[in-house]
Design brief:
Blueprint: H1 3-10, H2 16-23, H3 27-35, H4 37-60, H5 66-74, H6 85-95, E1 134-143, E2 149-157, E3 163-169, H7 174-188, E4 194-198, H8 207-211, E5 216-220
Parallel strand pairs: 1-4, 4-5
Antiparallel strand pairs: 1-2, 2-3
Helix pairs in contact: 1-2, 4-5, 4-6, 5-6
Length: about 230
């Protein structure tokens, strides 16, 4: 409640002068506020009507934000009904109407200059003549409601494109991919003699040490395939 509203609500019981002194406002300011009440009420009514129009547009496509909704409202609208995008944004904010906000893309491939480089054993050929010979990996980030991310590491057989192993965690450390490889080994019984393709990222840097116990020959690509961003 504003101080002006407090004075108005109690003016029938107490003297306006005393109330203004109590809340530390000038009487002239209070009376100016009181005089503007009809204009405020009219503006509030206009905002309520605009909110209904906004809701109608938003219901058709809830990804739209203030600029696009403003364009929709003004499309073929008479001059007297056109609205400013700042006003639309204000009403949307007050009414809790939100468009889709694209989240910042999470980088899941981070080159590691200090890491040892390994040859691309697949030579960009992501096919296989039989199951269990060639595998590729990927890391996908999964945004969750609290604003953080989970990370999903997968191992896919190049022959069948089947997902044979996966692991999920709230980090992108080496053990995330190790767990995915162990899951693949458990699914297939063994990964001995197979080739696993990853990138030159920080996650891929585990390649040699952690894959040897599983019997995998390590290979790395150019950072655009394998344990990298899902959209590359």
């Amino acid at each position: 409640m504003s101080r002006f509203q407090f004075v108005a609500d109690n003016s029938a019981t107490f003297e306006v002068k005393r109330l203004c002194e109590l809340v530390e406002i000038e009487r002239s300011s209070y009376y100016a506020w009181l005089k503007a009440a009809p204009a405020r009420e009219a503006r509030a009514a206009d905002d309520a009507a605009l909110a209904e129009r906004i809701r109608a547009v938003h219901a058709e496509d809830n990804t739209q934000g203030a600029p696009r909704i403003t364009a929709e409202l003004n499309d073929s609208a008479p001059a007297g009904e056109r609205v400013n995008h700042k006003r639309v944004a204000r009403v949307m904010r007050l009414q809790g109407i939100r468009g889709y906000v694209k989240k910042r893309r999470v980088r899941t491939t981070i080159p590691e200059p200090s890491g040892q480089k390994y040859p691309d054993l697949l030579k960009r050929d992501f096919t296989a003549p039989a199951p269990g010979l060639r595998y590729v990996g990927d890391i996908t980030y999964l945004p969750i409601a609290d604003g953080t991310n989970l990370y999903l590491a997968t191992v896919i057989d190049c022959y069948s494109r089947r997902l044979v192993g996966w692991a999920i965690a709230d980090h992108m450390r080496t053990e995330l991919v190790e767990d995915a490889l162990k899951a693949a080994a458990a699914t297939r019984g063994t990964l001995k003699g197979s080739v696993f393709h990853s990138d030159h990222g920080s996650v891929g840097g585990f390649n040699r040490s952690s894959q040897h116990p599983l019997g995998i020959t390590g290979g790395m690509g150019d950072g655009k395939q394998g344990l990298g961003e899902e959209d590359q």
